[in-house]
Design brief:
2 copies of one chain form a homodimer. In chain A, helix 5 links the parallel strand 1 and strand 2. In chain A, helix 7 runs parallel beside helix 8. Chain A starts with a helix and ends in a 5-residue tail after the last strand. Helix content of chain A is 41%, strand content 18%. Chain A is an alpha/beta fold. Chains A and B meet through helix 4, helix 5, strand 2, helix 6 and helix 9 of A and helix 4, helix 5, strand 2, helix 6 and helix 9 of B. Chain A binds a DNA duplex (30 and 30 nucleotides) through helix 2 and helix 4.
Chain lengths: 328, 328
DNA sequence: GTTGCTTACTAACGCGAGTTAGTACGAGGG
DNA sequence: CCCTCGTACTAACTCGCGTTAGTAAGCAAC
C-alpha cells in the first residue's frame, strides 16, 4: 500500500480512502485516478487479514454442517455463500463430521477467525442441541431448531410440501392416494402427513388411515410399503412417498406387478434428490427442499442480527415447491 | 493477550512464548502453568488474523471447485479439510459456480486472504485451462490436469478401476462381458475401457468389440445401451457400465426382460455414487472414485510445495477400489 | 491584510499478535 | 570481590491496514 502511495505521489491514507471509496474525504477525480492506476500497475492486492484487524470487522460469516453425509448440505452452503458474496462477505465452512476435530473444535476455529455470525445447519430437519459455544456469536439455525426456541431458526415448510404433493395428485383426478411415511417421530414425517390430510380434507376427500403405511426411509423400505399398498384389493391409484429413496423402491414394486407409471399408479416423492429423481424412469415428480433459499435467508438473518436489529426468534418456514416431472 | 499477561503477572511476550510452545525460550513450568491458567480463566481466544499478520503465515489453504453440480465434490473437500486440520491448517472454500462472481474473482478473494496454497478441483476427470491467477500461489490440480503439465496433478487411476471391475466379473466366471462406455473423448471413458481390455487379455479372454457399446452418461443412455446388448442372440452374462447412472438404466432393461441380477446378468458400475449404488435393488457393486484421498493428497503436495520442496510435476494417480455389493 | 472557510490532503495512532535484542538476577568460579 | 554465564524474562519493533485529528494552501469576505 505504501508502494502504491509513493507511485501515485500521495500518502498511504489517501490510497486507503480511494480504495475504500470513502466519499466524505473529498478526493478529486484526478487523484483518485492516479491511485487506482498505480494500484493496478503494481498488482496491489489488499491483505484481508490486516484489513480485518484494523477495521475491527472481518467480513466473514461461518457455517457449520455435515458436508458429506447428506448430499444436499452443499446446497445450503451455495445459497449462503452467494448471498454472503452479495453482501461483500466471505463464508468460512467448517465440517462438523471431521475425524480429527469435534464439532465444537471446528466452531472454536471459526471464532478464532473472528467471524461475525454463524449458521448452524443440519442435514435433515430436526431438533438439535447446539454446543454452548455457538451462543458466543450471532447465530442462526438452518434446517433445524433448538428445543427452547432461543435461537432464530429457518426450516422447510413440510406441511405445505405435503399439501402441494397431494394436491397435485388430486388435480390429476386421484382420490385413493396412498401415503408412505417416514419414521413418525421426525418433523418431516409429521408435517408431510399433516399436509396430506389437509389437502384431502380441503378437497372433500375422506382420509382413509389404512392407506397410510410407514416404512424405513430407504429404497427397500419404500418397496415393502408399496407392496403392501399395491396388493390390496382396492389398491390406491397414486402413492405419495415420504422421500425420493422410498419412491425408488416403490417404482420397483409397481413395475414388478406389470403396472405402468403414471398410467396405472402415479407417484410423488419428496426431497428432490437430483441423482434419483431426475434419473428414475419415468422421471419422478417430487417436492423440493429449499436448501439454497434457506442458506440465503440464513445469511440475511445473520446480517440483521450482526447489525443489532431486533429479531423475533420465531421460526421462519420456507416453502417447499413441487417439481413436476413425469410420474403423475 | 495483555489481560492474560497481567493476570499471570508476566509480560505479553511470555504469554506468546507459552501459547506458541516455544521450547527455546526457557520458560519454567510454574510460569507456564500460570499463563495457561490465566488464559483459560479469561476465556482467551487468539485472533487468527492478527497472528497471521505478525507471523507472515496464514495457515490457510484454499480450494476452488464446483460444490453443487457434482455431489461428490464435497468428498474432495472433506479429504482435504481433514488432512489440512491435521497439519494445523484451515481450508477456505470458494465455489467456482457462483452467479455473483466469476471463478477468477473467487480465487482473487482467496489470495486476499493470503492463502499459502491452492487446490483447483474439477468435478469430473478432465483437462482444464486454469486461470492465470492460479499460478501466483503454490497450486495443485485435483481430478484434472492441464494440457502442458506445468502444474502438479492428482487424478484417479481409471485404467486400474476398469481392470478391477472386469477382474471381479472374470473371477465370478463370466467371459462374455459387455461394456457400456461413456463419451469416448473423455479420460474416464478411455481409461476404463483400457482397463477392461487389459483384464480380459490378461485372463486369456479375447476382446469382442461388438460387446462394447457407447451411450449417454445417463440412466436413459444406460437403458438403451443395455437393451442393445441384451437383445443379441448371444447376450453377455455380465455388463460393466461406464458409471452408476447408466447402471441404473441397465437394471431397468434387465428387469424388464424378466432376468434377475446377478443370477442371469451381473452388473458392475463405476463412481460409487452412494445415493444410487447403495439403494438400487440389488445393491450395486461398483468402483469408487477416491475423492477423499485425492483431496488429502492434494493438501500433502501443497504442504511440500509451500515448504519449497522440489516436486516433479508428474501426475499422481490414485487407485480406484472395487466396492463389493450384491450385483455380481 | 487578517479572519474564516473549503479543499485536499498527511502524520500518527491503534488493531492483536510474533519476534528480536537486550537486561536484571542469581549461582558458580577464580 | 569481581567476572562470567546461564536463566527468565521484558521493551520495543513489526506486520498491513483503517481512522482520527490536524494542517497547509487557496480563496472570499470584511
Amino acid at each position: 500500500m505504501g508502494d502504491v502511495a509513493q507511485r501515485a505521489g500521495v500518502s498511504r491514507t489517501t490510497v486507503s480512502f480511494v480504495l475504500n471509496d470513502r466519499a466524505d474525504a473529498g478526493i478529486p477525480d484526478e487523484t483518485r485516478r492516479r491511485v487506482i492506476e498505480a494500484a493496478a500497475e503494481l498488482g496491489y492486492r489488499p491483505n484481508a487479514g490486516a484489513r480485518a484487524l484494523a477495521a475491527r470487522r472481518s467480513d466473514w460469516y461461518g457455517i457449520v454442517t455435515e458436508i458429506v453425509t447428506a448430499p444436499f448440505a452443499v446446497d445450503v452452503i451455495k445459497g449462503a455463500q452467494d448471498r454472503a458474496l452479495q453482501q461483500g462477505k466471505f463464508l468460512l465452512i467448517a465440517s462438523s463430521e471431521s475425524e480429527v476435530a469435534t464439532e465444537a473444535a471446528g466452531i472454536e476455529k471459526l471464532l478464532e477467525q473472528r467471524i461475525e455470525g454463524l449458521i448452524y445447519a443440519a442435514t435433515w430437519h430436526r431438533a438439535v442441541r447446539v454446543p454452548e459455544i455457538v451462543r458466543e456469536v450471532p447465530a442462526v439455525l438452518v434446517n433445524c431448531f433448538d428445543a427452547d426456541g432461543s435461537l432464530p431458526a429457518i426450516v422447510p415448510d413440510e406441511v405445505g410440501g405435503g399439501r402441494h404433493a397431494t394436491q397435485r395428485l388430486l388435480d390429476a383426478g386421484h382420490t385413493r392416494i396412498g401415503l408412505i411415511t417416514l419414521d413418525p417421530a421426525i418433523p418431516a414425517s409429521v408435517g408431510r402427513r399433516q399436509g396430506y390430510e389437509e389437502a384431502l380434507v380441503a378437497a372433500g376427500v375422506s382420509v382413509d388411515p389404512s392407506l397410510v403405511v410407514a416404512g424405513d426411509a430407504t429404497a427397500d423400505g419404500g418397496y415393502a410399503a408399496a407392496c403392501e399398498l399395491l396388493d390390496r384389493a382396492d389398491r390406491p391409484t397414486a402413492i405419495f412417498c415420504g422421500n425420493d429413496r422410498m419412491a425408488m423402491g416403490a417404482y420397483d414394486a409397481i413395475k414388478e406387478r406389470g403396472l405402468a407409471i403414471p398410467r396405472d399408479v402415479a407417484v410423488v416423492g419428496f426431497d428432490n434428490q437430483e441423482l434419483i429423481a431426475a434419473y428414475l424412469r419415468p422421471r419422478l415428480t417430487t417436492v423440493a427442499l429449499p436448501f439454497q433459499e434457506m442458506g440465503a435467508r440464513g445469511v440475511e438473518m445473520l446480517a440483521a442480527l450482526a447489525a443489532g436489529q431486533p429479531i423475533d426468534t420465531a421460526t421462519v418456514t420456507i416453502d417447499c415447491p413441487l417439481i413436476e416431472r413425469s410420474s403423475v
